[in-house]
Design goal:
Elements lengths: L19 H42 L7 E9 L5 E6 L5 E6 L3 E6 L5 E6 L8 E4 L3 E5 L4 E14 L2 E8 L3 E4 L9 E6 L6 E6 L5 E10 L6 E10 L5 E6 L5 E6 L3 E8 L2 E2 L3 E4 L5 E6 L6 E5 L4 E8 L5 E9 L6 E6 L5 E6 L3 E6 L4 E7 L7 E4 L5 E6 L2 E8 L7 H5 L14 E2 L10 E2 L2 H31 L3 H14 L4 H43 L2 H6 L5 H27 L4 H9 L8 H25 L3 H9 L4 H30 L2 H6 L17 H8 L8 H34 L4
Antiparallel strand pairs: 1-30, 2-3, 3-4, 4-5, 6-7, 7-8, 8-9, 8-10, 11-12, 12-13, 13-14, 15-16, 16-17, 17-18, 17-19, 20-21, 21-22, 22-23, 24-25, 25-26, 26-27, 28-29, 29-30, 31-32
Helix pairs in contact: 1-14, 3-9, 3-11, 4-9, 5-7, 5-9, 9-11, 10-11, 11-14, 13-14
Length: about 750
Amino acid sequence: MSSPPPLSHDRSAKRPARTPAARTSRRRLLADRIGRWAITAGGGAIILSVLGILVFIVIEVAPLAGSAQVAAAGSVGLPGRGVVGILADEYRTHVVVLDEEGVARAVRLADGATVGETHVFAGGIFGGMATGTDLLSAGSPDGMVGLVPVRFETSYEADRRAVTPRIGAPIVLQVGEDGQPVAVHAARLDRDDGTATVAGVLPSGDLAVVRREARTNPITGEVTQTSSRVLARAPRGITHLVFDAEQRNLYGGTSDGHLAWWRLADGIPREPQVVPTNGAAVTALTLLLGDRSLVVGQADGSVSVFSPVRQGDESSTLTRMRTFRGLRTSIRWIAPSWRDRGFLVQDDGGRLLLCHSTSERILWRGTSPSPAATAAFVAPKVDGAFLAGGGRLTALELRNPHPESSLRSFFARVWYEGYERPAFVWQSTGGTDDFEPKLSLTPLIAGTLKGTFFSLILAIPLGVLGAMYASQFMHPDLKKFVKPTVEIMAALPSVVLGFLAGLWLAPRLERLLPALLLMPVVLTAFLLGARLLWHALPRRIRARIPLGSELGLYVLVLVLGSWLCLVLSPWLEAGLFQGSFPTWLLHATGLAYDQRNAVVVGLAMGFAVIPIIFAIAEDAFSNVPRDLVSGSLALGASLWQTVTRVVLPTASPGIFSAIMVGFGRAVGETMIVLMATGNTPIMDWNPFNGFRTLSANIAVEIPEAPQGGTLYRTLFLAALLLFVITFLVNTAAEVVRQRLRRRYAQL
């Protein structure tokens, strides 16, 4: 045999030409690679977008956890000696101080110059104070009390702001008898009608209340002034007195640690209510914004907040609501904020605290730049404060943007002013400037879960069982129409469903609610009867009926049963519910019936969630391998046994995913809840009243929330909670789904 010719190494030899199949394969590989890159980039972009949204929400929420900042901002010298009261304008350009010499001086802070002064009493004063933001008061050694109204006028010239302090003429009222000094006094002046009320403790221990009223004749315009003086019993050792703005309540503190509360009717005090504190002497006393919370400082360094609380017999009692600890020596003074429920407090040791009553937070603590300060005032915008002592006025810079925020105020029970006990309350705004914001997210979380629960108890059974029937029992020709029809339901706008639920369904449901309560019993009985009737038919007759036609029988039975329930509804309401179900419900159970309630939302939102659960669950049932079904039927199992014992377990991961997707849809629903409920943020699982969800609350409140304010950031916190709830639910769902897949993978 001859050997084969040697291989040629000639580079000029022609290479075999590529076939069209090879060129096509290369194009396909390139297209696959581009497609893979595009899909990867799209998925990555989605993940980055979601993370970006999360980061943005966290950035907006983060300032709620920040603390306040207090820093000294300079000082100026003050003429006179012993400042007892300070007032300042909202721009912090001028202050008006009242000193022990009985002189009220307006001081320009830029250079410390005196720009105006008024002598209240010649020869000094016997105690003095600042009341509110526009009144100074002082007592004289001969039993007189003078009220000095102050205002700050703001004008603009050539785009420059000018503030001019105006010190009004003192209003002097005789409180003490026979020239006896008034050791402790309180004063209030109503700028609108000129009514002035002064209370003072006499050397005898009695309380004297003097009231001056100015009445204007509507015809002649003549002003008539009348005065009254009333004596009342007072506890021994009164150290401080304070009036509310309406001059209807007078509060006092004693040297043995008691609080006294007098109610006034036309300047006449009633018998005082005396309540104990902790036994230490009351050394500082003031009212917070709104005049419903009384801040009490005592000799042992404790600071407490008291407020009138309504009792079961319709009376009210001064009750301790909060206690702030952080000071060890006697409280020197308390300066309230006139924009929120915050206050500054200093003790004799020079320690300074910035507190907020509603959130029960100590926002800042540190050493006072004026340890010997005898008076203090928080600027109207709460962006600064002034301390006076040692002949100098020290200015403080305050940065306290979110004093109302705390874990307690967001998620725990808070004892609000006017409430009988601590409660979960959301009420972000009120009708007056002294409103106390209530920002508890707990009722919103409960409302979200409540709406989700009532929608899913309707959507899960109908969606899953409907998908099971359509996939395993329904005739294929009928399924071609049923499945697309149910899936088209998902395209209905939620605003349309909410509109129909709120304006059409809610009033009809109120009238036909007994029929709804009757339907589960009647329809179940009718369906069982229809099943018995179907199986009672001779086999030869059933054989002539096309497969799947039994569905028509069941639909007819459901229609007849529903019609019967509607017909029987008035008779049932008259016989069992005394003619009115809402009235019977209130008298029998104490539960109120609101027309827009959780049942309405459950029906409307369940209608919106059913298509989602149906579509995903039907795909899960249909994707079960037919070999499993055929094998089960071949072994003698019935179709029902095959579906419940083979198909259902195998499809359970997909069914669970369908339920979780439906849960997420219900949690995030906004428009249906917004339009079909009373949108009332209450903590109650009663199905016949309304609620408010996190998403609906965001939609309602965000247009009115000032950007960067506490309410604005609290709404972002609500959005973060929705994000976290959805993330946790989806994570748990994926873990359960994977376990179910591993468990039934061998079927």
